[in-house]
Write a structure and sequence with these properties.
- The strands form 3 sheets. A 7-stranded mixed β-sheet has the order 2-8-7-6-5-3-4, with helices on both faces. Strands 9-12-11 form a 3-stranded antiparallel β-sheet. A two-stranded parallel ribbon has the order 1-10.
- It folds into 2 domains: 3-43 and 286-385, Aspartate Aminotransferase, domain 1, CATH 3.90.1150; 46-283, Aspartate Aminotransferase, domain 2, CATH 3.40.640.
- The protein is built from 14 helices and 12 strands.
- It is of the alpha/beta class.
- Bound molecules: pyridoxal-5'-phosphate.
Amino acid sequence: MDYSRLLSRRAVEMRPSGIRKFFDIAAEMDDCISLGVGEPDFKTPWAIREAGITSLERGRTRYTSNIGLKELRSEVCRYLQRRMDLSYQPDQVMITVGGSEAIDLCIRALVDPGDEVILPEPCYVSYQPITTLTGGVPVPVPLKAENGFRLTAAELKAAITPKTKLLVLPFPCNPTGAVMRREHLEEIAAVLRGTDITVLSDEIYAELTYGYDRHVSIAGLDGMAERTVVINGFSKAYAMTGWRLGFACGPKALIDTMVKIHQSCIMCAPTTSQYAAVTALRDCDEQIEEMRTQYDMRRRYLVKCLNEMGLTCFEPEGAFYVFPCIRSTGMTSDEFAQNLLYEKRVAVVPGTAFGDCGEGFVRISYAYSVEHLQEAMKRIRAFLKEQGLLHE
Ligand SMILES: Cc1ncc(COP(=O)(O)O)c(C=O)c1O
């Protein structure tokens, strides 16, 4: 059978994730060091695991309501008020299968065929294919290293057309580690006020910021809550990737529509994970802080090593990635990642996996132990030396 004729055109044209390609190869190699996956190396804090176990012991094994446990949604509201200075009511919060599902629902709830979605790139890999699948038109905005990979008001204005429906604001950013501080967000908000553009603010790394005051959400700025869907989750800050839990908050009409889609395709987020997440939000600030401190130490170590090797590395202030420039090697991002993998068995992700403007960069995750990172830096140093690119 000719499946290419049977499959949906939009599904066939979807871009596969450029992250996985290298990791499938790396997984088959002995003694390979992977710095590729954006997944905490920590175990989920014990109190959270225990809460999951207790919920199972109590036989809480049924569906929850579609929108998610009331207890958890109330806890999300308290958490957002306490940590991000955001005010939501429980009926403005829905619980999802990871931040991933929240992104999918938000785009599907808002975007009709032909609508334009502004994507500041380099950015996380799911916004573009979901937009395409919905029939929307992704409008990439290449961000610049000299602006600290932040979106500027001028760049946003230049991308807006009468068809613009949604702006994805992916900060703290995977893969660059860039953050948008209050003053930068104010400039973006000034462009958006008075338009009909909605913001999908992906704040999954909001707890992982370094070297400045806490994360600021655009939803907290004047007039922005009514046009913003805040997306967050438990995978990164609480080391809960496998529990598959996230949430979205926003104007009730929007959340209600997202819940309607979720009812048809998911029903409800995993029940055990929802009970465990109540404990995460209530009792685990200290554990988040311990993990954040570890990431910060690793971040500083990598930035120093990479800059010393001549791989210029802009200082990331959020998430757990560094995004060094590899242009000095004369290789493309893909060649660099491939050669490093085959010659030194170190896996990194080419910057182009996150948009064309990622050319000249690679993404390195520091969600790995210090020993792991030290060995990787040793191998990268040896790789550059053998290429005649390092003179010591
Ligand atoms: C920016 C960003 N958003 C969302 C996600 C999705 O995370 P999850 O579905 O595990 O919550 C990720 C995962 O890497 C991410 O980096």
